[in-house]
Specification:
Blueprint (H helix, E strand, L loop, with lengths): L1 E2 L6 E5 L2 E4 H21 L8 H27 L1 H6 L14 H19 L3 H8 L4 H13 L16 E2 L7 E2 L2 H20 L8 H17 L19 H27 L1
Parallel strand pairs: 1-4
Antiparallel strand pairs: 2-3, 4-5
Length: about 260
């Protein structure tokens, strides 16, 4: 077992100004998306310019932050919001949802598509392979903040963590599991898959399918939110429930993408 180290959530402090590690992880994620996007835009016949990539990162960042916060309130803390709507703006108290962030990005990309007169799925096919390193950075922020503790594990598991602020039980480091699957592994799969020409929508479909499967699986090692517990069948967490539509949508979009390719060939 490994005892979780006490990590100061504040990375840098200048008098009254404090910069938290979690915020730095978000900035790191956006920077990685920008770097990878610029690399892809330089490829022959990419159809993307430097200005478009910069605007894509901006639109995506705004959609992600707003959607992640609103999604957390709606999906995970709606009763508290009804009692006190002001909590929506108390971002310093934590609470961000990937699924809400994904919806926010989807909405922001509609505006981006109108601005540059691009096909929506051309945008998502370009952007989604860039996203997993940012997701990994976010999960590392969760780990630094000692958030998302895992379920109780076998004490003999070499990489099990004890979170002293919770209890003295060995637990799965679920935030690291999700960083490796939703981040690193998903990035490798999507980057390789999108490195050669694929039918429109195929990359987007694979992202939804793969992320949904990874998230559904790793949720088995993550402790459900204390105020919610299991929300379906006495074993399914909210994260798993929200991942099912992603899996179905991903499979459907992949099938449509290759069916359209077959008809046009």
């Amino acid at each position: 077992m490994i005892v979780y180290p006490e990590i100061d959530p504040v990375a840098i402090s200048f008098g009254p100004v404090t910069i938290h590690w979690y915020g730095l992880m978000y900035l790191t994620g956006f920077a990685l998306v920008w770097i990878l996007g610029m690399h892809r835009a330089k490829q022959a016949d990419s159809g993307w310019t430097k200005q478009q990539v910069e605007d894509l990162v901006f639109f995506g960042a705004v959609g992600l932050i707003l959607g992640a916060r609103i999604g957390y309130i709606l999906f995970y803390n709606f009763s508290a919001f009804i009692d006190n709507p002001v909590i929506l703006f108390k971002v310093w108290q934590g609470g961000m949802s990937f699924h809400g962030g994904a919806l926010g990005v989807m909405a922001a990309l509609v505006l981006f598509a109108r601005k540059y007169n691009k096909q929506y799925f051309d945008i998502t096919d370009f952007m989604l392979p860039l996203a997993p390193p940012g997701l990994m950075a976010g999960r590392m922020g969760n780990f630094i903040n000692a958030e998302l503790p895992g379920r109780v594990a076998d004490p003999d598991l070499p990489w099990a963590f004890v979170y002293p602020h919770i209890d003295n039980l060995a637990r799965h480091p679920s935030s690291l599991y999700q960083a490796l699957t939703e981040g690193l592994l998903l990035f490798i799969i999507l980057w390789l898959f999108s490195s050669s020409k694929k039918p429109r929508m195929a990359v987007s479909g694979l992202f939804l399918l793969a992320y949904g499967c990874f998230r559904f699986t790793t949720e088995f090692f993550r402790e459900p939110d204390a105020h919610m517990g299991f929300v379906a069948f006495d074993w399914m967490s909210q994260g798993q429930v929200l991942s099912i539509p992603m899996i179905i949508a991903g499979m459907t979009i992949l099938l449509l993408a290759y069916r359209k390719q077959g008809r046009s060939s």
